[in-house]
């Protein structure tokens, strides 16, 4: 988390310094006549500072998110926590609806924060185990610390086994609890 925090602070500092440099360059040059008084122009309101997008991509800023699949697998092994990988697209209405439902559910957020290594990806992962039945979105795959994809933890759709929709949050929470419980009984 510290590298992420450091990166965010560095980006914020760079944007503030750039803003200050722009302000300084926009001020009027000193008058050519030494006796003349400089014209003071009122400052224009600045555009709001945009905060860089976080790794959460809107799925929960309180959750610690891994940056890459490899990092997430490593963290899972080190912490002995299962990995939950959310495959989605930013412009997909089904992904957006699932994201809103996941964000609004306190139990899903709590489980994600406390019991899982979390990763959300908008690009395909090289590991073909992450798409056991296709490359559709949104889909959620669980991986245990031994790097085994939990194919037994599927959603309720036969043609898209790992798909979840907004109204499937209770099913997702059940699978999250199973991933956590099964993991502890297997280790």
What does this structure look like?
It is a single chain. This protein is mainly alpha-helical. The chain has two domains: 1-52, no CATH class; 69-186, Glutaredoxin, CATH 3.40.30. The chain is built from five helices and three strands. Strands 2-1-3 form a three-stranded mixed beta sheet. It is globular. The model is unreliable at 7-13 (pLDDT under 50). Belongs to the AGR family. Residues 25-45 are annotated as: Disordered. One of its GO terms (molecular function) is dystroglycan binding.
In what order do the strands lie side by side in the largest sheet? 2-1-3
Structural class: mainly alpha
Sum up the overall morphology in one term.
Answer: globular
Figure out the total of helices. Answer: 5
Query: CATH H level of the largest domain: which superfamily?
Result: Glutaredoxin
Q: Determine the strand fraction and express it as a percent band.
A: 5-15%
How many structural domains are formed by the residues?
Answer: 2
The low-pLDDT segments are 7-13
Quick description:
With 187 residues, the protein is mainly alpha-helical.
Secondary-structure map with pairings?
Layout: H1 2-26, H2 69-79, E1 83-87, H3 93-104, H4 106-115, E2 117-121, E3 139-143, H5 169-186
Parallel strand pairs: 1-2
Antiparallel strand pairs: 1-3
Helix pairs in contact: 4-5
Structural descriptors:
mainly alpha, Glutaredoxin, 187 residues, 2 domains
């Amino acid at each position: 988390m510290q590298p992420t925090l450091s990166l965010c602070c560095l980006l914020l500092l760079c944007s503030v310094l750039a803003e200050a440099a722009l302000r300084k360059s926009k001020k009027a040059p000193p008058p050519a006549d030494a006796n003349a008084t400089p014209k003071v122009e009122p400052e224009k309101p600045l555009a709001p500072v945009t905060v860089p997008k976080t790794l959460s991509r809107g799925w929960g800023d309180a959750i610690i998110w891994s940056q890459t699949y490899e990092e997430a697998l490593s963290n899972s092994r080190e912490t002995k926590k299962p990995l939950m990988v959310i495959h989605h697209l930013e412009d997909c209405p089904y992904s957006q609806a699932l994201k809103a439902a996941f964000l609004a559910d306190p139990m899903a957020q709590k489980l994600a924060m406390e019991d899982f290594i979390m990763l959300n990806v908008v690009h395909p992962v090289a590991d073909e185990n992450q798409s056991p039945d296709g490359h559709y979105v949104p889909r959620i795959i669980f991986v245990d610390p031994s790097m085994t994809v939990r194919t037994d933890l599927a959603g309720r759709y036969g043609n898209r086994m790992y798909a979840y929709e907004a109204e499937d949050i209770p099913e997702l929470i059940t699978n999250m609890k199973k991933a956590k419980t099964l993991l502890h009984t297997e280790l």
